[in-house]
Write a sequence for this structure.
């Protein structure tokens, strides 16, 4: 299964990307992954808006093992990098949040930009949704664990 949506590179596109992910995953029966996937897409779409400053495409795919792959394609060649941040910083936590929620993530260059992708392992009724399966990407992006302050996350639809 695969589906995609292209959105303009404006801040109003981030909640639209989140709604697209939620609606699609509920339709596909991935109810237990909706919240994590919506948060990951929020972070990746926000990076596209803030740093690529271009239209971006959100793509969702499910592979044969049931793993969910989330992708954001944009027109920038610049790869995202996890950043350090202070307690009072309002930015810089996005990739650390992504790393905490996914089994693996990375970046692939494209002739017209890049794709930042993240995978959520298959979560079914027999598995604990807090258990991560798989590995971190050892390529560009991914690979390092970061500490992220814990607390409630609130997402607008």
């Amino acid at each position: 299964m695969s589906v995609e949506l292209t959105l303009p590179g404006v801040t109003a596109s981030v909640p639209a990307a989140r709604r697209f992910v939620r609606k699609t995953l509920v339709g596909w029966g991935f109810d237990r992954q909706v919240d994590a996937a919506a948060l990951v897409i929020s972070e990746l779409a926000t990076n596209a808006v803030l740093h690529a400053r271009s239209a971006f495409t959100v793509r969702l795919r499910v592979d044969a093992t049931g793993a969910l792959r989330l992708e954001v394609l944009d027109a920038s060649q610049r790869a995202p990098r996890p950043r350090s941040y202070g307690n009072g910083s309002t930015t810089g936590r996005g990739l650390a949040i992504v790393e905490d929620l996914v089994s693996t993530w990375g970046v692939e260059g494209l002739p017209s930009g890049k794709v930042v992708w993240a995978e959520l392992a298959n979560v079914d009724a027999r598995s604990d949704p807090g258990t991560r399966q798989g590995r971190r990407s050892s390529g560009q992006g991914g690979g390092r664990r970061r500490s992220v302050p814990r607390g409630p996350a609130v997402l607008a639809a």
In short: The first strand starts at residue 2 and ends at 7.
